[in-house]
């Protein structure tokens, strides 16, 4: 930073009347001048925590202290949400969470903020596990030590982080990093700590650790250990599923760019195999996204025009020409007025437009004689959306069949009906199974090769036996129907 950072201390306090004064007194004198503000947030305690905070405030011990009493109990996570929003709104650069019960050492405040001040981190975790043996020597019960290690290892594997400990409440944040994530959507409970860390990790924030001592005193623990373990396991699994494409974006905030499906049995790979059997010529890639498919088409000798609603990074380098257009408004003039195309690819496009019939009819006008149209659409008849509907949990996901950008849904029967009435004849049809390659997005513990092979074989058997139930994507190679003009 070009100036001294504005450092804030958030003291989360609940029934901490016996410890709050000593916690604030232990803030090192040489660090106090660097602190811009201290917020003591009393989470509607049943004791006189708030009054103790006001007493320390009046004593003016070299700290600019603000004391608030929440009108109701917000919960551990809810209290943090209030404090972080307060820090952001007050223009602080760094905020450190300190517990009012004295479990974490205020003497190490300078160590906690140092990596952020140096520009080496956006988040700093105080870890009781970095120094071998220190946690047990500091009084951490064996069952908590073992549980901490097991949960941390699991969370690292699933999330892709590499921390010695996930369960420390001693943390410092760059407020700019906090402001970039939707932490207000997180739990109000103790698993807020896990959720905010997952969000920051996914946003690209740099996470560092510093060693801290372990202290277990007479403070009352309000954490239900089994419930907490269940919640944090559920959180990291939910994060991993959101990375794959299932569920909402509260933990893994998604981008609008579509990713290439590299698996050899994916719809993209199957379409490219079909393309390689066709003669090279002028090609139109509708909904070209980042141009990764177009790049392979060009390698096969095609001259590719890409069309999409926005220009993704690198797309203009991957196509011969790019047209920015919203297909909901029809085919763009640059496509309609130019030479016809020998090949048109509409991979995962029709489900994103409100009038797919109009697009399919319009493509007759831009396809050269003898040309081919290749189409892929997700199969709403797949077991996954069926189960969601039966359970009454229909909602949109980040990716996949229930992608939040889909405005039309197709089964095999409905898409073939659309193709027929818009004047297209099916030359070839195929069905692909689940895209197992996406299981490796995020985390370090993707499906093993043997497990993916086993599940893949089971899924393939289902696709062959019941393609309408197990087929994930429907693929078609099309030509204009002979003697039948599409209805306009």
Would you mind describing this structure in some detail?
The protein is an alpha/beta fold. The protein has 18 helices and 14 strands. The protein folds into two domains: 7-244, Spore Coat Polysaccharide Biosynthesis Protein SpsA, Chain A; 267-480, 3-Layer(aba) Sandwich (Rossmann fold). The protein has helices at 20-25, 49-59, 75-89, 109-117, 134-137, 142-159, 175-179, 192-202, 225-244, 267-276, 292-299, 315-318, 333-336, 356-363, 383-390, 412-421, 449-465, 467-470; strands at 7-13, 35-42, 65-69, 94-99, 123-127, 171-174, 207-211, 282-286, 303-308, 321-324, 341-347, 367-378, 424-432, 473-480. The strands form two sheets. Strands 3-2-1-4-6-5-7 form a seven-stranded mixed sheet, sandwiched between helices. α6 packs parallel to α9 (225-244). The longest helix has 20 residues, at 225-244. The chain is elongated, with a radius of gyration of 28 Å.
């Amino acid at each position: 930073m070009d100036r001294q950072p504005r450092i804030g201390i958030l003291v989360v306090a609940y029934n901490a009347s016996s410890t709050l004064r000593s916690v604030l007194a232990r803030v090192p004198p040489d660090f106090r001048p660097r602190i811009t503000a201290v917020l003591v947030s009393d989470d509607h305690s049943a004791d006189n925590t708030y009054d103790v905070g006001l007493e320390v405030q009046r004593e003016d011990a070299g700290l600019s202290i603000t004391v608030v009493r929440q009108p109701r109990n917000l919960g551990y996570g809810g209290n943090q949400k209030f404090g972080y929003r307060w820090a952001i709104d007050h223009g602080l650069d760094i905020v450190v969470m300190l517990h009012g019960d004295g479990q974490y050492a205020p003497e190490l405040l300078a160590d906690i903020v140092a990596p952020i001040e140096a520009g080496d981190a956006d988040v700093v975790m105080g870890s009781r596990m970095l120094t071998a043996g220190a946690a047990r020597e500091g009084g951490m019960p064996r069952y908590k030590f073992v549980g901490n290690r097991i949960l941390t290892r699991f969370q690292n594997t699933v999330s892709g982080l590499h921390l010695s400990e996930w369960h420390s409440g001693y943390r410092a944040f760059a407020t700019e990093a906090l402001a970039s994530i939707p932490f207000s959507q997180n739990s109000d409970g103790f698993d807020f700590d896990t959720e905010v860390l997952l969000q920051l990790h996914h946003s690209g924030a740099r996470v560092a650790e510093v060693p801290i001592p372990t202290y277990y005193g007479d403070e009352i623990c309000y954490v239900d250990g089994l419930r907490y373990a269940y919640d944090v396991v559920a959180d990291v699994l939910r994060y991993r599923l959101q990375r794959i494409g299932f569920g909402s974006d509260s933990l893994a905030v998604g981008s609008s760019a579509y990713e290439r499906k590299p698996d050899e049995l994916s719809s993209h790979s199957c379409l490219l195999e079909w393309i390689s059997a066709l003669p090279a010529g002028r090609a139109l890639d509708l909904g070209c996204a980042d141009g990764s498919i177009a790049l392979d088409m060009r390698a096969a000798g095609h001259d590719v025009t890409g069309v999409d609603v926005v220009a993704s990074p690198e797309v203009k380098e991957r196509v011969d020409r790019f047209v920015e257009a919203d297909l909901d408004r029809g085919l763009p003039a640059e496509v309609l007025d130019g030479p016809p195309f020998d090949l048109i690819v509409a991979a995962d496009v029709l489900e994103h437009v409100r009038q797919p019939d109009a697009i399919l009819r319009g493509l007759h006008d831009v396809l050269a004689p003898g040309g081919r149209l290749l189409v892929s659409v997700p199969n709403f008849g797949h077991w996954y959306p069926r189960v969601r509907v039966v359970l009454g949990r229909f909602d949109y996901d980040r990716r996949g069949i229930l992608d939040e950008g889909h405005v039309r849904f197709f089964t095999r029967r409905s898409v073939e009906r659309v193709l027929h009435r818009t004047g297209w004849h099916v030359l070839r049809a195929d069905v692909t199974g689940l895209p197992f390659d996406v299981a490796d997005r995020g985390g370090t513990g993707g499906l093993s090769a043997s497990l993916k092979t086993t599940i893949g074989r089971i899924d393939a058997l289902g696709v062959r036996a019941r393609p309408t139930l197990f087929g994930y994507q429907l693929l078609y190679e099309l030509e204009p129907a002979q003697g039948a003009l599409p209805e306009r």
